[in-house]
Amino acid sequence: MNAAPVAVFSVLADMENRAAVLKSVKRVVRVGPLPIETGTRIREKRTAGSLFKGPFRIVDYRPPNRISFAYRWLGIPLRVDVALRDERGGTLVTVSSPSGTVGPFGPLVQMIATRLIAQWERDLSDVRRHVEPRANPAWRAGLGA
Length: 145
Description:
- The chain is α+β, with helices and mostly antiparallel strands.
- The chain is built from 3 helices and 6 strands; from the N terminus they run ααββββββα.
- Helices cover 29% and strands 32% of the residues.
- The radius of gyration is 15 Å and the shape is globular.
């Protein structure tokens, strides 16, 4: 992304304005006090077609380099790690899911984790559209990396 890691992280961690940034999020309710930190629980309502609509928890919070989220889908625990690294004046964002894939449900968990990462990639496109013009006032659509 054509913005510093701190700018990208601040948008990712801004749970209060998540619905304004992410097209598929209709409403967000933070469960617990501010500030956002490891252990914070979030409930969000997403548009139809979004696979993961329920509550999630922040399980790793290290501004501005990492934020991780834990989900449950049909009782299956899932995790998404979002790592941010400064790269040539911008931010390289890496999304991964270290969710377990061992045992009889391993292939199902892997398929669900893949869908969760795909949803996150769509969300990151929204984050990019939001953060780049604000982090770089001279940046114009079509000229960014």
